[in-house]
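Q: Could you fold this chain for me?
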Amino acid sequence: MVAVLSVFISGYVTAKSLYDESTYRPYTTDNKAFMVGDTITVNVVEMSSAESSADTVAHRGVGADAHIQDFGGLDIGDIQLGTETGGGGKVKRKGDLRAQITVEVIKVHPNGVLEIAGEKLITLNDEEQRIVVSGKVRKDDISAENIVLSSRISDAHIEYMGKGVIGDSQKPGAIYRFFNWLGIL
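A: Sure. Below is the predicted structure, expressed as structure tokens.
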């Protein structure tokens, strides 16, 4: 009787399992990321190149032929007016980025796709380099070592930015920006 009364007095008692299916990871499986907060290493291997060229030639001319004789002893020959315009341009760009960054799973979609995001900041000799990676990864594209290639990230957003003396020297000067704003360049 005392035992029954102590149960009623102490309140409702339940046993809770130590097993949680949403966070359970067996010891025999690999260490692939599968839930929010897990990390994945991204091998960024991106190469791109583009080339564009244009040539322009335009001719415009006006000609006049006049001969005036015995006008004060002057003889005026041919008079011709004209313009000739030519131009050309070529743009060639090539990019190659190789980096390794560890990102975090920030969301797991109902279909099992992992949304990832992360950034890395490196400062070397007063030069700051920042790498930002985000996108979506299928669990099947993650290797057993918990690594995914950047080419396997959908909706990928990869930024590589530099700041410092070298990065600042790559920006156009104020005079160039002014004439470009006017549309002259």
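A (continued): Strands lie at 39-71, 74-108, 114-124, 127-137, 147-149, 154-163.
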